Structure formats: C-alpha cells, structure tokens
Amino acid sequence: MAIVLKNNRSVTFQLLRSTDADRLFHYFSSSLSIESKSRYGPHPFDKVSVDGICAGLPGDTTRYIAIDDHNSIVAYMLIKKGMIESDRTRLLMKNIYYNKNTVCTFAPSVADAWQNTGLGSLLFDHIEKDILKPASYTHIILWGGVQATNSRAVHFYEKKGFQHLGTFWHEGKENYDMMKELEIKRSHTL
Question: Is the pTM higher than 0.85?
C-alpha cells in the first residue's frame, strides 16, 4: 500500500517478509540513532537476531515495514497478540487485567530522518484499521511501555488516544504503561 506524507514523500507500507533481513538490519544499524535505539526494546538489533526474526516469519507477531523510494526501510512496527510476560505481570500487580485474546501489544519505530513527517501517525492509523478487521481486539498496550523522558512519543500516544495506566522503573528510567481502548463498530440487525 502506498502512502503519501504531508511533505509529498511517499512510502510503501507492507508486512515484513523473510527476504527483508538485510534491509531490516541496515535500518537498525544505519537509520536509528543511539538515542532512538535506547528507546526501543522488543528485541536486539544484531544481525543474528534480525536473521532469526525474518527466518521465523510469520510467527506470533505481525511485523510491518515502510519502504521509501530508495528501497530502504524507514519504519518498523510490531503487533503481538496478547502481552509480553513482563507487561502482563506488572499490570497484574496494579490489578489491571486484560484477556490475552482481546489485547494486543504495539511497538513502533521510525527512522530518525523520517520522524516528525506524519509517517508514524499514518502507519498507526493503517495498523489500527487492520487489527480491527477481525474485531477481536479491544485494547492496545505499549510493548514495554514508553520512557517518561520521551516526550515526543508520549505526546504521540496521547494524541492517538492512549491512556496512562501508571509508571514503573526499568533500567534506572521511569516509564509509563499506556493503553488504548479500541472502538469496535458492531453491525446491528433489525
């Protein structure tokens, strides 16, 4: 699917394929600053891990990529059915429970050069529509939360309708658990 951004640049948005390992590794090694990498943590960025991810597709996580007109990955976003164990455990300690069949976990990243272009917002909107198709998910949780000092990301999630569930400390940093309740449109029969 082609997407045109507000700066008239366009990207192709698609599912990650097993043949994308080299491009994905290049994205991690060349398109994300050290700061961006420090804020993203679903998996390691090394070549062995990336090769394993692509070899194991589709797996239990849906992985989306955006590709620019130079055939480079400029965004990588994950949706996992249910929650990762550390998020589930932490939320249970706060007496917050979600059915693993109705919650999904979201982890986005956008190349530094493509941040603030509207790309993340457009991709999230497409992903949200895509995950609503089966109408089984009722909530989206952020994968590992978001660092409290990442004000741009926190603002993005709030703008997209995510609510704060509380704070927690991880690796000496304050983080927010955030969740979005999905509006499921149900058909009515007369």
Answer: yes
